[in-house]
Amino acid sequence: MKFILAFSICSAITGYCNNTATLPTEFNSWSECVGAGGKLIQNFSVEMKDSIEERKLYMNYFCNEIKEPEAPA
C-alpha cells in the first residue's frame, strides 16, 4: 500500500483554505506519510514565519491511500 500527502494553507482570519495540494512523493506506510506531514508543517512555520504572523496562517494535512488498479482476472 502506498500513501500520498495532501495539504492546505488556511487563514484563521478569513476561514479560507487554499486548494489542496499534494507532494509528489509516495510513502510506503501511513506512519511515513504522517511524519512527513509533521516535517512539512515545521518547515512551513520556520520559512513563512512573518506571513504566518501577519496573516494568521496555518497548515493542515492528511494522508490518502493510493488505490492501485486491480489486476485483470
Uncertain segments of ≥5 residues (pLDDT<50)? none
What is the distance, rounded to the nearest whole angstrom, between the alpha carbons of the first and last residues?
20 Å
Strand segment count: 3
How large is the count of helical segments? 2
**Global shape:** elongated
What characterizes the major β-sheet? 3 strands, antiparallel
Helix content, binned percent: 25-40%
- The helix/strand class is alpha+beta
Would you summarize the structure shown here?
This protein has 2 helices and 3 strands. With 73 residues, it is α+β, with helices and mostly antiparallel strands.
Describe the structure.
By secondary structure, this protein is α+β, with helices and mostly antiparallel strands. 34% of the residues lie in helices and 37% in strands. The protein is built from two helices and three strands; from the N terminus they run ββααβ. The protein has a three-stranded antiparallel beta sheet with strand order 2-1-3. The two termini are 20 Å apart. The model has no long low-confidence stretch (mean pLDDT 93).
Feature tags:
three-stranded antiparallel sheet, alpha+beta, elongated, 73 residues, 3 strands
Question: What does the secondary structure layout of this molecule look like, with pairings?
Answer:
Blueprint: E1 2-11, E2 21-27, H1 30-47, H2 49-55, E3 57-66
Antiparallel strand pairs: 1-2, 1-3
